[in-house]
Amino acid sequence: MFNSKAHRPRVRFPLAGIFSVSLIAQAANVDYFTDNGFGNVSSTMQHPTGQYYQGTTYLAYQGPHEDSYVCAYNHAGRKWSGPVLAGVSLMGKTPDPIDNSELDNHGKPAMMVDVQGYIHVVFGAHGGSPLLGVNTLGTPAGSVRGAKLTHLVSRKPQDISSWQVLDNIPPFGTYPQFVQTDSGDVYLFYRHGAHRSDWVYQKSVDNGRTFAPEVSIIKHKPQAASPTTHDAWYAWFAKGLGDTITASYVYHPCANPGHTSARHNVYYMQLNCGNGSWENVAGEHLSVPVTKEYADAKSLVFNTGTDRCNHGTCRVDAEGHPHLIFRYAKGQVRYSRWTGSVWTGPTAIVPDGGSQDGDLIVEFPTQVRVILASSGSSRGEVGWWNTADGGQTWSKQPPLLSRTGGVFGIGALVENFIPSGMFIVSETVSSQHLYKKMMLMGRDGPVKRPEEEADIAIKNLLEIMKSGPLKSGSTQVPVVKRSKKQKKEGRQDEE
Ligand code: ZN
């Protein structure tokens, strides 16, 4: 059994009947719930992208034109709804590019369902635009391509059909991440602009209707010795034990001139939501925002030296001790946990391979399961890696998905997940366009959907492509069919 206690289900539910979903494979059913995922649709960085709430798993993802789409799956009724266009991205292009480098891909949505059942989506920005005001906590992107961080909420609880904009957050954020506490307080974390920006959070005690001002927690600044390089960061936040929130982060030396994608070191700290104070893993109070020097002294997990690493994900065990994975050079994924006195390892879960990303479930301090999507040169896979000895050794489980030439993306675990809907995977199906098949993965594999409901984008595209290869910027717009009802109800209203 999966132990989802680390995700602290707010709603208890009957499990009977749920496991049989993926066994009802009818001839006309397919593994994906839609084929209109678009671009770099899956990442753990913007999260959650799914949440289970009262019998239904709600999912948000980047669709055509980098717009935000939402689907929902009712587990007992085995019924999908959507995709619904929830919000239009100002970063999107029409027609849809066929070259991924023409996409921004940073405006992917994060979502949550609040305690009243309203569904929230935050999306659409890569630092915002200078046209939208002065960013006192970071640098805006250099052009309107930075667009605008936008907060949508469903008009009705547990209903994805219509949406409104809540104009209650600054426009500058990148990488939005929601964390809800057991009491229902909502924390929205994000980087307050482009690279050279602080990481901040804003707290809401009224289900996201209003937010307190930004609290800066990780500081960007010029390096003293080399002021053309700024200290910059990539951070990942999740619910910890009780009334705490974990923050795991990596360092980015942001040089200009000579900019690179370098990222180094792994750091950890946590928020005590009760009094708003931050602590390091040993419980020592931290002054925020933390600087590079302060973080090196107080919150360092692992010094990578000159090696490159990248952020991963972090979950806690029943003691509240963090377990984290991060991506390392040459496709490695490494793991470390806090034993109560030291950080272990880190050890390589995957010794080498292609690009990897994923999330983890901590069943016991020494028993951890990591779900990874990998895209090597010849084969793409999605599957579990398990340890029963505290992370010293890892065993690869038979993959849930494995495709020659396949490329998979993965998001963080569905918040409050149940075994029949644990995480989202996107699959690249062609090098000729950027549409992706989207799958909700359960314990035993993908949750099925009738083909006629799931095939939205690619069939149309292939019809168009019969007359010749697509050209970027051509007028051969791959039309995404939506019903009149969806068109009417899916419209984004400015309010
Ligand atoms: Zn940079």
Indicate the mean pLDDT: 88
| Number of separate helices | 4
CA-atom Rg in angstroms = 21 Å
Compounds present?
Answer: zinc ion
The domain tally reads: 1
Q: What composes the largest sheet?
A: 7 strands, antiparallel
**Residue runs with pLDDT of under 50 for 5 or more positions:** 1-26, 472-495
Explained architecture:
This protein is mainly β and 495 residues long. It has a single domain, classed as YVTN repeat-like/Quinoprotein amine dehydrogenase (Methylamine Dehydrogenase, Chain H). The protein is 5% helix and 42% strand. The protein has four helices and 36 strands. It has helices spanning 292-298, 451-454, 458-465, 484-489, and strands spanning 29-30, 34-38, 50-53, 56-62, 68-74, 79-87, 110-113, 119-125, 147-156, 159-165, 174-180, 186-191, 199-204, 215-218, 221-222, 229-239, 244-255, 264-272, 277-279, 285-286, 300-302, 309-316, 322-328, 333-337, 347-350, 355-364, 367-375, 379-387, 395-396, 401-404, 407-410, 423-428, 435-442, 445-446, 449-450, 492-493. The strands form eight sheets. Strands 15, 16, 17, 18, 19, 20 and 21 form a seven-stranded antiparallel sheet that branches. Strands 2, 31, 32, 33 and 34 form a five-stranded antiparallel sheet that branches. A five-stranded mixed sheet has the order 7-8-9-10-36, with no helix packed on it. Strand 9 (147-156) and strand 10 (159-165) form a beta hairpin. The longest helix is centred in the last third of the chain and has 8 residues, at 458-465. It is globular and about 60 Å long. The protein starts with 28 loop residues before the first strand and ends with a strand. It binds zinc ion. Zinc ion binds next to strand 17.
